[in-house]
Amino acid sequence: MTHRWGFALVLACLAGCGGHRVSAARMGAVYTAKKAPCGLRFENLNHQEASAKFDMIGLVTVTDMPSSALTDEVKRDVEREACGLGADAVTLNAGVGNVLQFAAWHAK
User: What is the pTM of this model?
Assistant: First the structure.
């Protein structure tokens, strides 16, 4: 009986205990990585507005989110990846289902 509960727990964890995943892709100009926390700003700008102030240097993608809420934990993990690209700010690029994608920007 104990083995059944253990197996059920393993299956449940495989289905939902992993949480979200965050990855970064570098593009454009290359800047020195920063150690998080780096004071990253989450800006509410469209692409044209951001391009006037910043150089786009990459994308940070969050997958396997349990909800579309931008929690403190998700923000911390986005900051870690964006800082690794040398970013000063991120803007929401797209959000579909349990995936969010941010553009990473460096000040001009």
Answer: 0.80
